[in-house]
Amino acid sequence: PELEQTLALLSSHRSVLGYMLLSRSQPVSIIRHSGVVFEGEQGRKYAQAIGRIVESVQAGLADDDVRFMRIRTRRHEIMISPDERYLLAVLHDPTT
Asked: Gene3D superfamilies recorded for this chain (predicted)?
Protein backbone atom coordinates (compact mmCIF):
# COMPACT_ATOMS: atom_id res chain seq x y z
CA PRO A 1 0.00 0.00 0.00
CA GLU A 2 2.81 2.45 0.83
CA LEU A 3 4.58 1.67 -2.44
CA GLU A 4 1.36 2.15 -4.41
CA GLN A 5 0.85 5.52 -2.75
CA THR A 6 4.40 6.64 -3.49
CA LEU A 7 4.21 5.56 -7.13
CA ALA A 8 0.84 7.28 -7.59
CA LEU A 9 2.24 10.47 -6.07
CA LEU A 10 5.26 10.34 -8.38
CA SER A 11 3.09 9.78 -11.45
CA SER A 12 0.81 12.67 -10.60
CA HIS A 13 3.58 15.26 -10.64
CA ARG A 14 3.39 17.19 -13.90
CA SER A 15 7.13 17.11 -14.62
CA VAL A 16 7.38 13.32 -14.23
CA LEU A 17 7.42 11.55 -17.59
CA GLY A 18 7.42 8.09 -16.04
CA TYR A 19 8.94 5.71 -13.55
CA MET A 20 10.38 2.21 -13.63
CA LEU A 21 10.63 -0.31 -10.84
CA LEU A 22 13.39 -2.76 -11.77
CA SER A 23 14.75 -5.99 -10.33
CA ARG A 24 18.41 -6.13 -9.31
CA SER A 25 18.85 -9.58 -10.86
CA GLN A 26 20.93 -10.03 -14.00
CA PRO A 27 19.68 -9.20 -16.52
CA VAL A 28 17.71 -6.31 -15.03
CA SER A 29 13.99 -6.73 -15.64
CA ILE A 30 11.08 -4.33 -15.47
CA ILE A 31 8.67 -5.13 -12.64
CA ARG A 32 6.40 -2.16 -13.18
CA HIS A 33 6.48 1.05 -15.18
CA SER A 34 4.48 4.14 -15.93
CA GLY A 35 4.71 6.52 -18.86
CA VAL A 36 4.89 5.94 -22.60
CA VAL A 37 8.62 6.64 -22.64
CA PHE A 38 9.20 3.36 -20.77
CA GLU A 39 7.05 1.14 -22.99
CA GLY A 40 8.34 -1.54 -25.35
CA GLU A 41 11.90 -1.60 -26.61
CA GLN A 42 12.60 1.93 -25.35
CA GLY A 43 11.76 0.79 -21.81
CA ARG A 44 14.08 -2.20 -22.09
CA LYS A 45 16.92 0.07 -23.27
CA TYR A 46 16.38 2.42 -20.32
CA ALA A 47 16.26 -0.55 -17.91
CA GLN A 48 19.54 -1.98 -19.20
CA ALA A 49 21.25 1.42 -19.12
CA ILE A 50 20.06 2.14 -15.58
CA GLY A 51 21.24 -1.30 -14.43
CA ARG A 52 24.70 -0.72 -15.94
CA ILE A 53 24.96 2.78 -14.44
CA VAL A 54 24.09 1.59 -10.94
CA GLU A 55 26.43 -1.39 -11.19
CA SER A 56 29.33 0.79 -12.38
CA VAL A 57 28.84 3.45 -9.72
CA GLN A 58 28.55 0.91 -6.92
CA ALA A 59 31.64 -0.96 -8.14
CA GLY A 60 33.59 2.30 -8.12
CA LEU A 61 32.40 3.18 -4.63
CA ALA A 62 32.74 -0.25 -3.04
CA ASP A 63 33.33 1.20 0.44
CA ASP A 64 30.21 3.37 0.38
CA ASP A 65 26.50 2.69 -0.11
CA VAL A 66 24.89 4.62 -2.95
CA ARG A 67 21.50 5.89 -1.79
CA PHE A 68 20.40 8.17 -4.61
CA MET A 69 21.66 9.18 -8.05
CA ARG A 70 20.64 12.08 -10.20
CA ILE A 71 21.71 12.19 -13.84
CA ARG A 72 21.00 15.22 -15.99
CA THR A 73 20.97 15.13 -19.78
CA ARG A 74 20.16 17.93 -22.21
CA ARG A 75 16.46 17.12 -22.17
CA HIS A 76 15.73 15.06 -19.06
CA GLU A 77 16.79 14.16 -15.60
CA ILE A 78 16.87 10.58 -14.35
CA MET A 79 16.67 10.02 -10.61
CA ILE A 80 17.63 6.55 -9.40
CA SER A 81 17.12 5.11 -5.96
CA PRO A 82 18.91 1.75 -5.61
CA ASP A 83 17.78 -0.74 -3.00
CA GLU A 84 19.16 -4.18 -2.15
CA ARG A 85 16.54 -5.92 -4.30
CA TYR A 86 15.08 -3.19 -6.51
CA LEU A 87 15.90 -0.05 -8.46
CA LEU A 88 13.46 2.82 -8.75
CA ALA A 89 14.11 5.19 -11.64
CA VAL A 90 12.10 8.33 -12.32
CA LEU A 91 12.41 10.30 -15.55
CA HIS A 92 11.38 13.90 -15.40
CA ASP A 93 11.51 17.05 -17.47
CA PRO A 94 13.34 19.68 -15.41
CA THR A 95 12.01 22.53 -17.57
CA THR A 96 8.39 22.09 -16.37
From this structure: Dynein light chain 2a, cytoplasmic
**How many angstroms separate the Cα of 75 from the Cα of each of 18, 37, 39, 71, 96?**
14, 13, 19, 11, 11
For strand 77-82 and strand 69-72, is the pairing parallel, antiparallel, or unpaired? antiparallel
pTM, two decimal places: 0.86
Structure confidence at residue 6 as a pLDDT band (50, 70, 90) = confident
Domains of the chain: 1-92 (3.30.450.30)
Measure CA 83 to chain center: 11
Q: pLDDT tens digit string along 54-71? A: 999 988 887 778 889 999
